[in-house]
Amino acid sequence: MSVVETLKQSSTTAPSKQDDDGFTKVEPKFKYKVTPKKKNHKKKKSHFKYQDPSDWTLDDMIKQLESYREKLIETRFYETLVPLLTDHLLPRQCDTMICYGVGSMQDSIAARYQFMLALAIKDILQLKKGRLSIYDPVMTSLDKEACAHYDLKVIQQDEGCKRSITTSTLFYMPHCAKSLYSNTISANWTKEQLEQVTFIGNDFLDVYITSQPDSTLRRECPYLIPASTIVESTPFPDNLFAITNVFNNLAIQYFPASVIPQEDSDPFWSSVPFEKKDDSNSEDKDEDEKDRK
């Protein structure tokens, strides 16, 4: 069974209601006969779709997210993307996934699609329960309840995207600021760690390196400059998703061990100031270690 078929079977939709109203037909001699109206097989629009998101319950949220899952996996974009994810992510053997910057699923259409793609990637990677963590400062309490429903761990404090890793990790960061990608790289600026970092995020070369002034890059995202010289990048399918600001300019990106400089004395490593590792996320990392045992 394919990944698309498996995900289709996991999707749920609310049952449709059919009209059963009658109408009055006039007969000769003023006799009246009630004739049943033909059944309308058209789905009624669910009431929850018209609620203000601030009034949603958790059940409303899950129904919405599942409808977005269904719409996503029916697209040509997703059909084209799945083989790319399989071919380029599975060899990376990621056992952990960190989501930064998805936004609020309660308030954003783009966030709902990006969140459901994250769940699809989780299934492709066959991550164990508790191995997918998420953080965005704009997430609401209902967003966090939905994350718990799908077995995602909500990171409790802002790490500034400086999660230092010890195993192969996918950082899912659609449309984050360039400084945040630089922060993630800086927190893993060793040959052992860098080869275990995989990104799904803005294409470093196309979005930043080839289109923005060097002075801006050095000031706002210094680690992207050397990292972009060794990055392996596979763009997402272009112009196949109807809403153009959801998955545009994204790519699968990683740093092959064969091109990472192996000598600590290599100018590659000293081209940026080495930053002291931030231990503020040690509590989450301790929990991660427990999950592996």
From TrEMBL:
Basic and acidic residues composition bias: residue spans: 274-283
GO CC terms of this entry: cytoplasm; nucleus
InterPro entries: SRR1-like, SRR1L
Stretches assigned to the SRR1-like domain: 90-254
Feature: compositional bias, Polar residues: 7-16
Domain of life: Eukaryota
Ranges where the record places region Disordered: 1-24, 270-293
Annotated Acidic residues bias: 284-293
Family: Belongs to the SRR1 family.
PANTHER family cross-referenced by the UniProt entry: SRR1-LIKE PROTEIN (PTHR28626)
Protein name: SRR1-like domain-containing protein
Organism of origin: Absidia glauca (Pin mould)
